[in-house]
Amino acid sequence: MILYRYIIKEHILPFLYSLGIIIFIFTMTTAVQLLDKIISKGLSPGVVLEIFAIQLGWIVALAIPMSILTSTLMTFGAMSANNEIMAVKSTGKSILYLITPVFSAACLLAACNVFFNDLILPNANHRAASLLSDISRKRPALFIEPGVLVREFPNYALWVKKVDQKTGLMQTVRIYSDVPGEDPQTIIAESGELKLTGDGKNLEITLFNGETHRINSKNKKEYFLCRFKKQVFFLQNPDTELRRTTRDYRSDREMSSKMMIDQVNGYKKTRNDYFKEHSNQLAAEVSRIKSIDSLIVKYPSSKTVSDSTGAFSAWAAGFKSTRSFAFDNLNNKKSATERLLSKINFQNRQICQYMVEVHKKFSMPVACIVFVLIGAPLGIMAKRGGVTVGASYSLFFFITYWAMLIWGESLADKGIIPAWLSMWGGNIIIGICGLFLLLRVRRESTLFSFAPVVKFWFFMRQKTSRAVPSAQSRISVILLAITDAPYFFVRKIAGTLPTYLIKKFVGSLIGIFISIIMVFVVVDYISNLPRFEGATIFETALFYWYYLPWLVQIVSPIVILLASMSAIGSMAKWNELTAMKAAGINVRQLAGPLLFIGLCLVGLGFYLEEQILPKANILRRELTENIGRHRDMVKKKTVESNQNLRRDFYYFGDERNIYFFKEFRVSPPKAENVWKETYKGSSLVNKVSAEKAVFKDNSWFFTNGTLRSFNGNTETMTAFDTLKDTLLKVKPIDMAAQIRSPEEMGYGELRSFVDKTRRRGEDVSKYTAQLYSKLALPMMNFIVILLGISISARAGRKGGAVLFGIGLLLTFAYWIISQFGLAFAQNGQIPPLVGAWFGNSLFLSIALLLYAKASK
User: Fold this and answer.
1) pLDDT value at position 453?
2) Neighbour order of strands in the sheet with 683-696
């Protein structure tokens, strides 16, 4: 029992580490997919956290089998490397005895996972689907922000200069109305008060000391101006509350196995009814054919057809109506049969889809047991228990298992293979491989013997070494010299010890980067196979080449943390840190080179964000649009048309001037039903109304309109054929087009875009937060290095395993908090600068505190 407890204990930490990393990876991909859909909805932090907490259900269900595989490989690999396996065997215990506790634990986890997948996960998926459905119906949050044109009210737009969010008091209020069937009007007031009506359905706006301007749509010369001391105005309140609904419909992934089997029984009953109907149709047709045959026998034809063409035509004409009726009857029966067969095929597809999900609820938990069977012998045969070996084997087998699962599900849904085979095929294949390896390990025989290959290789090397060195040898020497050249210069500048540490860090950095990026690519490809339908291998490879900069940016913090901890932690493991401290070298001196690399990575991250990532995102988007171009041509044309035409378009020339274009076209640059208003304080002093406007020679020209000036109680009107606007010099494409998404712009371009968006009177919280994040995100690279050094330097006192777990947990929390801070800043719930830098500020403080303690 002591040995069993020891084996289980050795599995716990690798299992938790693996579980944490896998959950982190899937949570990142989920956050990237969901945050863009919910940031504009004005959700409370509690609702956002609820969304991600519910999503953890399927992530945990998928992560547990892979974590078992990784921990089994690492634990048995370490035991084999430390000769513990040999020591146990010397006592007469077999390999089956060693894996018994792990196998039992895997069976227990599998049973718990079956219960979780069948009873808990469906309800979690149902709740997640209902919540996301409710969120999709929710209107974006309404914030009355100063200087922002709020257009959430149907047919109305509201602008205020200052507003008190607590009391609802406003200063310099402007309301623009464009109600269909009514004349457009502008209401300006010195101040106002905003509050909700009792039922919450409307906003009651009380305006003080203002004026109303309205122009007759049919007769431009008629103008209405009314001044008031107080006016009450009601606007319909947009649906800004998240209304939770009860959703009765459940998809297959929202049902328990009992629910799905009931559905399958219902589909089978309906299918049997269709089979009976089809059989009855066939029986009726057979009976009809038999009756016709009997009539032919009973009443044989007594007429002889003449050989002349005229006589034949006269004879055939008598059958014309009968033939037409027969063809119509045949087509109707054919259509009825095809419809019936289509219904039967639909029932078959539904049965297959539900049965696939039923088998999946049991096959994935059983994978916990199968991965123990494959992981234990592989770990023993590898005789290494490092993260690299565990991650490599785990990645290969889990990707293989998942690919068979996805591929089998696709085939089963089409009815090509049975549902049970699609879900259990991976378990069967990997289980057979595991049993085979267990048998080989039990007999202490190798899986494959490479001795003849190695012997032949050395023979050829010795034979060629007597002659002139081969080109391959020279290339190897050149490549080795190239890779060692940077370290040579670093050694000359910084010394041997910093170079040694940097070499460890860079090696770990590259290895972990490659591993995590491979996981991302494979997971993304398998999960989004429909996206690549019709794509060539070259297009798929090119897509992920353009995808690479974004992946590097996202995973850099976790990779840099693990690399720094691996470099410092390995030195602590082999007592190199103790020896250095004994020689008078403290942690600060040792950390100097890595901190310098951290600053270099900050600069590299900013360069990636500014120069490479925007271009790669543009190319990836264009490539995605061109994949299956024949399917998306109509959609693409629609998008281009929407970018060229804007309706009811407002644009601020400056704070005193606002333009309105009923129809605004980028190409050709023109507009219809245009007006421009100029304000002085809370009064309108000039208004230009025109039928059309044209942009040429870097200026706007109004045509067929009127110019009105207001000075107290005096109004003057001037009609014009053409009037040049001297204020607005911005090109139409810059005014209207949201040229690219923020992810496709560098810092300078995004800052310019924020200014243009603000001039259109739109909310810029989202873009401002992303602007600040372009500086905050690269800074994470330095902070995680500092965090990794601080944690790993204390490994000698607390143990590397515990500290590694703490570091992983901190990085996971770091990334999540940073993403949520950015999301809330984009919502406008917190200031953009605070949201973008909150995660950095918090964890920089933690890193500095830990670093100070580690330096003592």
Assistant:
1) 46
2) 645-654, 657-665, 670-680, 683-696, 699-711, 714-725
pLDDT band at 633 (very low <50, low <70, confident <90, very high): very low
Which two three-digit tokens encode residue 190? 């010195």
**Percentage of the chain lying above the pLDDT 90 cut:** 6
Of 221, 236, 251, the last residue of a domain is 236
Considering 428, 448, 468, which residue would you say is the last residue of a domain? 448
d(CA 56, CA 612): 33
Q: H helices within 692-745, ranges in order?
A: 732-736
Residues 604, 664 within the same domain = no
* pLDDT above 90 for 208: yes
Same domain, 207 and 110: no
- Classify residue 789 as exposed, middle or buried by CB count within 10 Å of its CB (0-12, 13-18, 19+): buried
**Domain co-membership, 608 together with 684:** no
What are the Cα distances from residue 601, in Å, to 320, 377, 778, 779?
Answer: 87, 40, 8, 9
Considering Cα of 305, then 308, then 312, then 314, what sign does the dihedral take? Answer: negative
Cα-Cα-Cα-Cα dihedral of 287, 290, 294, 299, to 10°?
A: 90
In the DSSP assignment, the letter for residue 237 is: P
653 and 722 housed in the same domain: yes
Region of residue 181 (phi > 0: left; psi between -120 and 50: alpha; otherwise: beta): left
Q: What total of structural domains would you count in the chain? A: 4
- Its domain, for residue 812, covers 495-631+766-854
Look at residue 587 and tell me whether its pLDDT is greater than 90: no
Q: What is the pTM of this model?
A: 0.58
Q: Please give the Cα distance from 363 to 70 (Å, whole number).
A: 19
Same domain, 165 and 212: yes
Residue with tokens 């565990």: 390
Give the span between the Cα atoms of 768 and 831, in whole angstroms. Answer: 9
